[in-house]
Amino acid sequence: MAGDVKYITRYQKANTTQVNVRLSKKYDADIIGFFEEMEDTGKATYIKKLIREDMARRAAEKADGASAEEAGGEAGGEPSGEAGTEPAPEKILTVAELAVRIGSSVPTVSSWYRFKKENPEHELAKLLPDFFRKGAHRTRCWHESDIEKLLKFKASIPQGRNGVMGSITQKYQKRKSAGSGAQETAGSHETDHAA
Predict the structure, then answer these.
(1) pTM, full prediction
(2) What is the pLDDT along the chain (195 residues), one digit of tens a residue?
(3) DSSP tag of 85
(4) How far, in Å, CA of 28 to CA of 95, rounded?
(5) CB 122 within 8 A of CB 70
(6) CA 181 to CA 185: how far, in whole Å?
(7) What CA–CA distance (Å, rounded) separates 58 from 162?
(8) Residues 6+ away with beta carbon under 8 Å from 170
């Protein structure tokens, strides 16, 4: 048994490389939650599959770009980047990337969209751009151009627990405190009544 362990250790040292990724509990909560639901044996396979798909996409884009430049040169067309060429595709952002770009957290962005879902006709909710879902896991995504709209929405939110977002915030706080024990929950209710 000990010999097998030594052999495996030697094999891994000679033939494998380990890559660690540190995730933020504040900004990457959605990713952490996603991986917690996945079996350990499937995590490495899933990550490698995503990387290979991205590598293939980048290689295809590079090949397409080279072909376009060659075609432009042969036909006497204009160089890449000048008038007459198609604009680069707009960057797509996940909720974690979006939260970083607008200076908020993933739970905060999620609470905004809960507010929009519960109050679709509210003038403030109409400022929020719609997200779309992408990939097999139906990941929430936004276009980079949505950042300006989200920043406008963020600046328009009335501050304070009793503002339009107050009911959403209180629901989140109740769920959070429910997992912290009855004593903490009771204490938070006392604080709410005293406030």
Answers:
(1) 0.43
(2) 566 777 778 877 888 888 888 888 888 888 888 777 777 667 778 788 888 888 888 888 887 776 666 665 555 544 444 455 556 678 899 999 999 999 999 999 998 999 899 989 998 889 999 999 988 888 999 999 999 999 999 988 877 655 666 655 555 555 556 655 544 433 433 333 333
(3) S
(4) 9
(5) no
(6) 6
(7) 48
(8) 161, 192
